[in-house]
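Lab meeting, item 3. Inverse folding demo.
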């Protein structure tokens, strides 16, 4: 079962790798450095706003529904998560409106227009529950939605985005890309919604508390995907943001699959923990872990060499970003290792509090340290702190592998969640 699901994950991540490799350079070329910086900042703000909707609920949903055996209980869990996300979506829309009014991220574009562009990301959180398909072992649906949406996005960008003046078109296409295809597949999760439970305030409050405990994991996942460039752009601005945004988009193509791979492993955790490979890892076999890291490192080196050649060949305006890409790629093996360790040994056991604390500690070190160093020493210091934060988290997690298996705080009071 797990191998079959990983097959779809692999196909989906090939799509996630190939299309951004073509899409982001295309946008960088047509929008220019300044236009690409604006694109990265606005799409980044809207994606960061989704943190207020996700709030760790997807992680809680996968863990609880995977552990639940009663179909009725699964329906109640899904309904509570859906109602929580709708409530949080309305709240975040108001917060986003105030933020955009206070600091307009796109000069020359009205607050209402920017807010409308950002709504797409919030709607996607509600209308496309990728976490539900993952725990239901329907990675084929995740692949179909992702593939069709990304192909449609690329085709639309190719036709409609031609110059820096089309930056708002690019933002709209990017933020709303998944919604049409997701709506076509909504019947798969609508059957798990119990209308009578949508207004169950007690269940919603309980789910929000659990989601808050796991919100650090959602923050970490978003930072892994988006990087620091959107936040850096709000603080600094200018061409440096364009270089950093380009470097992050290119380098993070390698790490985008990490959360999904970890989620599939977590859902199939019971079978995986019986394997000889995981038995060695859980006993602290650092030689095996080191071998896996070296293999990932070789892949990263090859990827950086190819990216360096492509930038010199076709994107000479972004030559300064090559060194930034090199630093970011060097630390990508630690991203996968950290996600897998946390998912298998902690999230799968519903140890939400520990995961939340680890994730918030990582994000605090990353964001505060990176932005501070970037302000003083520039983009190179910023990406060095990004890599250092990943390495620090890896060291903490590896030191905790040997010994007894962690016990989830939610598992101790399992009946209280029912």
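The presenter then showed the designed sequence:
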């Amino acid at each position: 079962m797990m191998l079959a699901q990983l097959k779809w994950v692999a196909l989906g991540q090939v799509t996630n790798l190939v299309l951004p490799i073509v899409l982001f350079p295309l946008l960088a070329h047509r929008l220019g450095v300044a236009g690409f910086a604006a694109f990265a900042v606005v799409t980044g703000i809207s994606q960061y706003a989704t943190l207020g909707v996700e709030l760790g609920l997807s992680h809680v949903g996968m863990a609880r529904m995977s552990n639940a055996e009663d179909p009725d209980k699964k329906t109640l869990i899904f309904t509570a998560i859906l109602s929580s996300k709708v409530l949080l979506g309305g709240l975040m829309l108001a917060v986003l409106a105030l933020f955009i009014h206070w600091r307009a991220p796109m000069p020359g574009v009205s607050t209402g227009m920017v807010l409308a562009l950002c709504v797409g990301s919030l709607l996607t959180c509600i209308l496309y529950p990728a976490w539900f398909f993952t725990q239901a072992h329907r990675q084929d649906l995740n692949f179909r939605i992702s593939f069709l949406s990304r192909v449609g996005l690329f085709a639309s960008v190719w036709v409609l985005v031609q110059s820096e003046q089309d930056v708002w078109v690019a933002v709209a296409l990017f933020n709303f890309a998944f919604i049409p295809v997701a709506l076509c597949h909504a019947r798969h999760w609508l059957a798990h919604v119990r209308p009578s439970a949508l207004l169950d305030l007690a269940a919603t409050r309980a789910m929000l508390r659990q989601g808050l405990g796991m919100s650090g994991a959602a923050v970490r996942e978003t930072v892994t995907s988006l990087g620091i460039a959107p936040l850096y752009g709000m603080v600094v601005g200018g061409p440096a943001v364009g270089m950093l945004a380009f470097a992050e988009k290119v380098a993070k193509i390698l790490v985008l699959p990490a959360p999904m791979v970890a989620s599939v492993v977590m859902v199939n955790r019971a079978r995986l923990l019986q394997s000889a490979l995981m038995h060695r890892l859980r006993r602290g076999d650092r030689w095996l872990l080191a071998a896996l890291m070296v293999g990932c490192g070789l892949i990263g080196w090859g990827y950086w060499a190819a990216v360096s050649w492509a930038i010199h060949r076709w994107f000479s305006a972004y030559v300064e970003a090559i060194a930034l890409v090199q630093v970011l790629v060097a630390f990508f093996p630690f991203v996968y290792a950290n996600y897998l360790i946390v998912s298998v040994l902690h999230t799968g056991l519903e140890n939400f509090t520990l995961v939340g604390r680890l994730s918030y500690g990582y994000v605090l070190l990353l964001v505060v340290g990176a932005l501070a160093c970037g302000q003083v020493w520039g983009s190179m210091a910023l990406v060095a702190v990004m890599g250092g934060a990943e390495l620090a988290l890896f060291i903490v997690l590896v030191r905790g592998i040997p010994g007894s298996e962690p016990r989830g705080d939610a598992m101790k009071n399992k009946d209280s969640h029912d």
